[in-house]
Specification:
single chain; 274 residues; alpha/beta; Rossmann fold; six-stranded mixed sheet; four-stranded antiparallel sheet; 8 helices; 36% helix
């Protein structure tokens, strides 16, 4: 589904077509999930079908419990679908991959390690030569604005800075796909806005494919190339809205009537459930 915004929509369709040439990097085919509970079997996801191309930023919005996070966990191979398949570069995902990074709402930094050592920790786990990875780690730490905090401990950082360190830890290992499950939900409004701008800049400059879960409609539209709207449980894709605004986007785009109209369209698709 694409909203009707005159010439803006025309641009959106042209840009979307250009961005999605070639084979998708991620394909979801008839993905479902059913959980066992004390009350019986709970159907969390109805069949979900979706193609995502390299470099796209996809935002998922929907009411609580609609399966957004479940879907992200399935893409990450942290849980298995009850039926259906997820493929990455044409290969079915059956176990976690180094090509896929996952960022949660909490930064999950080890308190006894500095920013640099937290960022380098995956290299230790994977048995990579630390001195070869260190220059890349420094580059990414600088990129996310923590140049002066390499030797700081998590307790010495604000919430936003901790999330920057968590993001640096993922980006150092150059994932093809970045999965973000409401990563800035616990931050104050101004820090969250700054992190959104930073994320959009880094994702586009690095060409990373991003799947982003949020309850915030304005955040989804501001960040995404496409917004995937999900229904209440059992979750299914109610519609996909193309976002027409060119990247990178200034924060002032939120004041445009086309942005407001699009937010209303998404809210209408949600039925007021978000």
């Amino acid at each position: 589904m694409v909203g009707q915004y005159g010439s803006v929509t025309d641009f959106s369709q042209a840009a979307a077509t250009s961005a999605r040439q070639g084979d998708p990097i991620i394909q979801l085919r008839s993905v479902t999930k059913t959980f066992a509970s004390a009350a019986g079997m709970v159907r969390a996801l109805e069949p979900v079908d979706l193609d995502i191309h390299a470099g796209e930023f996809i935002a998922f919005v929907g009411p609580s419990g609609c399966g957004k996070s479940t879907l992200l966990n399935i893409v990450a191979s942290l849980i298995r679908p009850s039926a259906g398949t997820v493929t990455l570069d044409g290969k079915e995902m059956t176990e976690p991959s180094r090509d896929v990074g996952f960022m949660f709402q909490a930064p999950v930094l080890l308190p006894w390690r500095t920013v640099e050592k937290n960022v380098l920790m995956p290299a230790e786990v994977m048995g990579l030569p630390i001195e070869e990875v260190r220059p890349k780690a420094h580059e990414i730490i600088d990129l996310v604005g923590l140049r002066d905090f390499r030797d700081a401990y998590p307790r010495q950082l604000s919430g936003g800075m901790q999330q920057r360190a968590s993001l640096a830890r993922l980006l150092t290992y150059e994932p093809k796909v970045l999965l973000l499950d409401e990563p800035f939900g616990a931050l104050d409004e101004f820090t969250r806005e700054a992190m959104n701008l930073e994320l959009a800049r880094i994702a586009k400059s690095a060409g990373i494919t991003v799947l982003f879960v949020t309850h915030n409609i304005a955040e989804a539209i501001f960040l995404a190339d496409r917004v995937v709207v999900m229904s209440p449980r059992p979750g299914r894709v109610s519609g996909v809205v193309e976002v027409p605004f060119a990247q990178p986007r200034p924060i002032e785009v939120m004041q445009e009537q086309a942005f407001t109209d699009m937010a209303f369209e998404v809210r209408t698709m949600l039925g007021g459930a978000a």
